[in-house]
Write a structure and sequence with these properties.
44% helix, 5 helices, single chain
Length: 148
């Protein structure tokens, strides 16, 4: 597979039509992640109630792969229990790094379009950036509850 094959028509369509949620002014937690490989960045804000993500915002500067991941997350993250989101991150990581299947669940099915990224290790970080950022924000919230 040639690198240009990685950017399928569907990847470019998702990235080009992504929701642009902006930042949340009243977030429970925020996290910023940067890919040292390509310079992609994302800042996410989340609100969580009773273990479920009820608010999400982001600002992103990334390649089409990072934008695609972020678009899928922005479309489906609200209403997602934190434990489910962490599972999706684990499944995405396994898909890219351990030849695992794409994440399960109907709402996450578009993540399958990112499966060819597994053959391009330098693109793993930008593809996973949104998942790492959301989980870092969830970690902040959980640490706050533990310390309270």
């Amino acid at each position: 597979m040639d690198l240009s094959d990685l950017y399928s028509e569907r990847i470019l369509e998702i990235a080009g039509n992504q929701p642009i949620p902006g930042r949340l002014a009243d977030a429970d937690a925020s996290a910023r992640k940067v890919s040292r490989v390509c310079g992609s960045t994302i800042e996410v804000d989340i609100k969580v109630r009773d273990g479920t993500i009820i608010g999400y915002g982001h600002e992103i500067q990334a390649c089409a792969l990072g934008q695609t991941s972020a678009a899928i997350v922005a479309t489906h993250v609200i209403g997602t229990p934190a434990a489910e989101f962490r599972r999706v991150r684990e499944e995405m990581t396994a898909m890219l790094k351990a030849d695992g299947p794409p994440p399960g669940g109907e709402k996450w099915e578009d993540l399958r379009y990112l499966e060819p990224v597994r053959d391009y290790r330098p693109r793993h970080t930008s593809t996973l950036l949104v998942f790492e950022a959301v989980c870092a924000a969830l970690d902040q919230i959980e640490a706050g509850r533990t310390d309270a």
